[in-house]
Design a protein that fits this description.
- The protein is about 30% helix and about 25% strand.
- The protein is of the alpha+beta class.
- The longest helix has 23 residues, at about 80-100.
């Protein structure tokens, strides 16, 4: 398989700054997306700190393969899944430390979703309500579980999905990086196949664009960058109430049977390093 990928971030139509941040590390096939929160408490600093901490820890794998594993570990997890989960714990500590050292940053935090592809193996680590989706055979599957109040109420049967979508409590998170000194990280593994499409996104997309619409765009537009731009445009047409970030990785058939990478990044969107915002 080959992998074609691209990422786009946009401030939206309401916010004045962008607290979203993403990075694509092509040689590692690593995709990291964070959505900052805190407003004047510098959510954009939290998201950037989170992304850079995760990227640095994963890049350091070869130099320091025996790094201490943090947090709960499930039996059978690969080394990359353990490292990715640990990276989110380190990001949480980094944000908390920065807030302690800089009083003006107190209250800042971030959601974060990261995906790491190793051959046909996909590792996912996640905190918050930024999401990872997998499109396979025309069916869109949400790989991550939202750590939000309304999502938990839906899981417990206290709200319907429609009621949750209309709730004024959608922004209330049960878990976020920087909220507590210790954090619980969700991590899992999946097998990828040719023609699978992986997408990471901030809630600026999913609040206003439905899953059938997302699936339609991912099926119709095979170029990851253009697909991301189309989804961002659709969110902005719906009012763009929040920052919007989309990262897409498309698995391609490769007759040679080995992985290569094609990297495309968005233009006006501060690619890679990016961003700013989302907020909660």
């Amino acid at each position: 398989m080959q992998i074609a990928c691209g990422g786009v971030t946009d401030v939206g139509r309401v916010r004045t700054n962008n607290e979203d941040c993403f990075r694509i590390i092509t040689p590692l096939n690593l995709y990291v997306l964070a959505d900052g929160m805190g407003g004047e408490a510098h959510g954009e600093i939290a998201s950037a700190l989170a992304v850079e901490t995760v990227v640095k820890h994963c890049l350091d794998e070869e130099a320091n393969p025996a790094a201490k594993v943090l947090g709960k570990v499930e039996p059978g997890w690969s080394a990359k899944t353990k490292r990715l989960s640990t990276a989110l714990h380190l990001a949480n500590k980094k944000i908390c430390k920065s807030a302690e050292e800089h009083p003006e940053q107190r209250g800042m935090g971030a959601t974060l979703t990261a995906a790491w592809i190793d051959r046909s193996n996909l590792s996912i680590a996640h905190v918050g309500d930024s999401r990872a989706y997998l499109l396979r055979g025309g069916t869109l599957l949400q790989l991550t579980r939202d750590h939000s109040l309304v999502a938990e109420q839906v899981r417990r049967g206290m709200l319907t999905v429609v009621e949750a979508e209309e709730s004024e409590m959608q922004s209330v998170l049960l878990r976020a990086l920087g909220a507590q000194p210790e954090i619980e990280v969700d991590a899992e593994e999946h097998i990828l196949f040719p023609r699978d499409v992986l997408m990471l996104c901030s809630d600026g997309l999913t609040r206003v664009v439905t899953e059938p619409e997302i699936a339609g765009v991912l099926q119709a537009e095979t170029d990851p960058l253009r697909g991301g731009e189309e989804l961002v445009s659709l969110a902005n047409e719906r009012g763009g109430p929040d920052n919007i970030t989309v990262v897409i990785a498309r698995m391609l058939k490769d007759s040679k049977g080995w992985f290569s990478w094609l990297w495309r990044r968005g233009a006006r969107k501060n690619l890679g390093n990016n961003g700013s915002a989302g907020g909660k």
